[in-house]
Design goal:
InterPro entries: Homeodomain-like_sf (IPR009057), HTH-type_TetR-like_transc_reg (IPR050109), HTH_TetR (IPR001647), Tet_transcr_reg_TetR-rel_C_sf (IPR036271). It holds the Pfam family TetR_N. Keywords: DNA-binding, Transcription, Transcription regulation. This is TetR family transcriptional regulator. By secondary structure, this protein is mostly helical. The chain folds into two domains: about 1-50, Arc Repressor Mutant, subunit A (Orthogonal Bundle); about 55-195. Helix content is about 75%, strand content about 0%. It is built from nine helices and no strands. The protein has helices spanning about 5-25, 30-35, 50-75, 80-90, 95-110, 110-130, 140-160, 165-180, 190-195. Helix 5 (about 95-110) crosses helix 6 (about 110-130) and helix 7 (about 140-160) runs antiparallel to helix 8 (about 165-180). The longest helix has 25 residues, at about 50-75. The N and C termini lie far apart (about 70 Å).
């Protein structure tokens, strides 16, 4: 990557390239397609990213940082607006499509796969901090992995079948969160079984 005497212009172009790469179907698009979408001359894209895998890593880092920041705010500040924004971001079909495309790219590129693993570790550490996970509590850790898988699955499903009743979805996710993520989970089965025993 070369240096430039107009760093502000370079930063604007870098931002446009990342926006363009997120907007168009990354896997099918060439570097030239992405450059044109960003209104950057195709050869100039290589001043920013040496190849498509390098660009994929930058897109993934940007997307992950957005999710991480929103999630951190919603978890630690307990603001319902942030929680709604976080869920809406997660369920955006274009975000899920990009995530699947980047995962596909990562199966062919070990550096990108390592990048994914690094982000996953950072995300796991955030969850462990928020839910006060004891490093020796294997059950609690596995329940958090299940919750993580649930959210990832919901994101992918939103590609094919958008959720119509988001309020109900949020309510049910709150119950799943209470059961799977808390140190001492609420046992909703007791609520169901109690009336049946009477």
């Amino acid at each position: 990557m070369t240096t430039h005497r107009y760093p502000r212009r370079m930063e604007i172009k870098r931002h446009r390239l990342l926006e363009a790469a997120q907007e168009i179907c990354f896997h099918a698009a060439s570097m030239s397609d992405i450059a044109k979408k960003a209104e950057v001359s195709p050869p100039h894209i290589y001043n920013f990213y040496k190849n498509k895998a390098d660009l994929a890593m930058a897109v993934q880092e940007r997307m992950n940082q957005e999710i991480f920041d929103t999630l951190k705010n919603s978890m630690f500040e307990e603001r319902s607006v942030d929680k709604d924004k976080c869920l809406d971001n997660l369920l955006k079909p274009e975000r899920a499509a990009l995530m699947l495309t980047l995962i596909t790219e990562a199966t062919r590129d070990t550096k990108l796969m390592e990048h994914f693993r690094k982000h996953q570790k950072k995300f796991r550490e955030l969850l462990y901090e928020y839910y006060h996970v004891d490093p020796n509590d294997e059950e609690h850790k596995v329940r958090l992995e299940l919750l993580n898988a649930l959210y990832a699955g919901l994101a992918v499903r939103s590609l094919f079948s958008p959720y119509e009743n988001k309020e109900l979805l949020k309510e049910l996710l709150g119950k799943a969160d209470s059961f799977l993520a808390r140190k001492y989970p609420v046992d909703y089965m007791k609520d169901i079984e109690a009336p049946m025993k009477k």
